[in-house]
UniProtKB/TrEMBL annotation:
Keyword Flavoprotein in record: no
Entry coiled-coil feature ranges: none
PROSITE patterns: PASTA
InterPro entries membership: Beta-lactam/transpept, Beta-lactam/transpept-like, PASTA_dom, PBP_dimer, PBP_dimer_sf, PCN-bd_Tpept
Highest taxon listed in the record's lineage: Bacteria
Any one GO molecular-function label of the UniProt entry: carboxypeptidase activity
Listed GO biological process terms: cell division; cell wall organization
Compartment list: Membrane
Protein name: Cell division protein FtsI (Penicillin-binding protein 3)
Gene3D superfamilies: 3.30.10.20, 3.30.450.330, DD-peptidase/beta-lactamase superfamily (3.40.710.10), Penicillin-binding protein 2a (Domain 2) (3.90.1310.10)
Organism: Pontibacter indicus
CDD domains: PASTA_Pbp2x-like_2
Amino acid sequence: MNIKKSIVLRVRIVFLLVCLFACAIMYKIVQIQVLDGTKWKQISKERRIRYQPVPATRGNIYSDNESILATSLPFYRVAFDPAIAQTETFNAGIDSLAMLLSRFYKDQSPEHYRRKIKNARHAGRRYIRLNSRQINYQEKKLMAGWPIFREGKNKGGVIFEKVEKRFKPFGMLAERTIGFINEDKNGAGLEYSFNGDLAGTDGEALFERIAGGNKPIYDGTEVAPQNGYDIKTTIDINLQDVAENALYKALVEKNADYGCVILMEVKTGEIKAMANLGKTKGGYIEDYNYAVGNQGRTEPGSTFKLASMMALFEHSNVELTDTVDTGDGRYRIKNTTMTDVKIGGYGKLTTQEVFEKSSNIGIAKLIQDNFSDNPQAFVDYLHKFGLSSTLGFQMDGEARPYIKNASDKTWYGTTLTSMSIGYEMKLAPLQTLALYNAVANNGVKVQPIIVKEIRRADQVVQTFQTRVLNERIASEETIKKVRTMLEGVIQNGTAKNLRSADYKVAGKTGTARKVKDGKYVRLYSTSFAGYFPADNPKYSCIVIIDSPRGVNVYGGDVAAPVFKEVADKAYARDLAMHQPLRARVAPNKDSLPQVKAGSLDDLSLILNRIGVSNHSTATSDDEWVRVTPQMRSLKFEPNPVRGGQVPDVTGMTLRDALFILGNQHLKVSVEGTGKRVVKQSVQAGTEINKETKITIVLS
């Protein structure tokens, strides 16, 4: 009995404690919900509602002719406040809206969208995201006319959340030069280097954090963002395309590791093309700016011989006609042997020929003979040429040149001769090109630029003018000598394949052995640097092809053809570079040209150009004419070509004759050699049938 009473007592005590605990919970609920409700609601509201940044629209990047290289396009996410619309408007439009959403997104049924919106409205939710897919501006305009949505944000509840994406209209063209910037503000190229101008200033606005996302609250306190500035570059998209295509073909053909091309205007330093391609598993892409950055900083090889010869001419009285004995192609310096490409050597060469043939031994001997007593003097000239300093290029990431001083611990007995042919130093391609550009510019070294203007809409905020880095890197006599040598490389030396009948090129090939694991291996960095037209330079250009494979892997075989393709296209596009028609001696009017027949327009143009008097009885409707001499002029008379009849083609050029006869559907055979038709087998005016054949005789 006592045990039973004890158990009952314990149960009653536990029950009482549970009741007291339940009462405490009820009291706490009442306290939170009623007594302290206002306080907690305010805290909740403060935590849900906060200011968030509103991104500014990023500025555009333009080419030199205002073509857009990069721009920000608006995209939108569609959200909805289902509680805003009036009941009548909502009920009348919900079915149609659900059907349109289903057809547009093609991911859910109309019933799914109708139920989703209605449930949110009944639950009093003020924000739902209808779909995570982003839509473009045209699609936004289309949706804005749908039922309920057409009432707008304040009456219909539709919310178009703007999201901007960077878009490059020319795709991969100049991709690394244009560059990128990520959410952590890291990046490369123009996007990164000019981010401070392009990014603008973000605004801010109140957003309420609710289920499904953040809903903007437009209470009048929002701060509008300040959109970014636009930048106008010096890039010519046509020349950029030419440079990239020529580079790509060479890299694929030679299975090279990477390559770059830079094309620059001589006087202004404006970069018109900068192409960089590196090998990846998926092919060649613009994954790094080898033209400017550290990965492209290499031993320049023979293109550096220009600097060596400039130092030589500045320091001594050596002339282009002086001779140096290069021997049998092997030259012992301290404990190393230097060789020339030609087996058996070049023997005795003039200074001009040493450069044209790119004789390592010839250059080394000339520098050794004149600077061995004071090697620092040679280095000082390199400093004077600006080769030991960065160019202050507008894009971040320019590599720092490496030029040894004679006091360095790594200066050995062979360093002077090694440096003379482009080893034991490192330069980025743009830095080498700046030297060649200075020579083309008569000794004036200008800073390369790639951005010309910073603008807001049509208003120019900042202009970047051509900046002179060195008024004269060398004497006028030295510049004249090295320009002669650079032209000789194309006329008589290692780059004869660059000869052109239309314009002259000046430049230098380069082939430098690569270092791997501290040792030189049989892989090469090939290059060609130069300018054109040589007699009045407009452009300078450098081409680098790294580690080409196969046969013929020297600079003249690999890099020079890329230079030529770029130069040919640039020359063809730039009419200002074309040589004007040379002034002709006034013709002897008593000795008239032997013109017989042809096109009225062509003959009139030619005769007027060479100053021969001519007049015509033909009208503008007469396409073909015959020519007869009269006193000291030529007379044009109609030579009609009638359908169905054999025309008179005597006196015409073969090209004109074949054109006319072919249009008459005649079967033509040609006899003899010469420039003009002297006889035709079928008389002019004869009716033409399917069997008609004609033979024309040339003389």
